[in-house]
Amino acid sequence: MRNQPGYQKVLYEKYYGYALKIVFRYVYRYEKATDVVNDGFVKLFNHFSRFTCREPEHLEKILMGWIKKIMVNTAIDELRRQNMIPEIGGIPEYVWEEADNQQTPEQRLFYKELIIEVKQLPPSYRVVFNMYVIDGFSHQEIASQLGITVGTSKSNLAKARAHLQKKLNSIRERNICSS
Fold first, then answer.
1. CB half-sphere exposure, 84, CA atoms < 13 A
2. Which residue of 2, 18, 106, 164 has the fewest CB atoms within a 10 Å radius of its CB?
3. Which intervals hold domain RNA polymerase sigma-70 region (predicted)?
């Protein structure tokens, strides 16, 4: 795939939105997120020979998992370079329009509210929450990736969950009161 721009373009166009949604959970600014996605695709194309699929009937699912792993790792590398300083910036509305068409409008709205709240978490909580809850990493993998202890990973996750629970309860109460 390394020297096959036609195939690269097809893969890039098909999975760009998917990759961007993954990176958005880690990187605030749209412009920076697109840079990270592009860096991730460069890594993907350079290392495509390492991709293996032992179950051809699940090729797309396995490929998406591999893309997800590359994008998460690329986003984390960027956060490390930036010393995990949260970036400031909004998410353009059209990004939410790329949400999975299988979702109901209510699910898309909840997803948007959840991601906005996750992005307001302190960086160390946000990264652990994303990696554990959304991307399915174990505490051991998180600790290894971020250079922290397993205990710190678990603590950051507990604090992130408590913070999000409080925020989401507040949003729910506001919505009930305004009805």
1. 12
2. 106
3. 11-83
Q: Of the candidates 161, 121, 162, 157, which has an alpha carbon nearest to the alpha carbon of residue 139? A: 157
Dihedral angle sign, alpha carbons of residues 31, 117, 139, 154: positive
* Alpha-carbon dihedral sign for residues 134, 135, 137, 142: negative
CATH class given for the domain over 99-179:
mainly alpha
CA 141, CA 50: separation in Å to the nearest integer? 20
Show Cβ contacts of residue 101 under 8 Å, excluding neighbours closer than 6 positions: none
CATH number of 1-90: 1.10.1740
pLDDT tens-digit readout, 153-174: 999 999 999 999 888 888 777 7
Query: H or E stretch including 18?
Result: helix 5-24
State residue 158 phi and psi, 5-degree precision: -60, -45
Whether 154 and 142 have beta carbons less than 8 Å apart is answered as no
Helix, strand or coil for residue 10?
Answer: helix
**Cβ atoms 19, 41 nearer than 8 A:** yes
- Which range among 56-60, 63-67, 149-153 shows the weakest confidence by mean pLDDT? 56-60
Domain positions in the chain are 1-90, 99-179
The 10s digit of each residue's pLDDT in 66-97 is 999 999 999 988 888 877 655 544 555 555 55
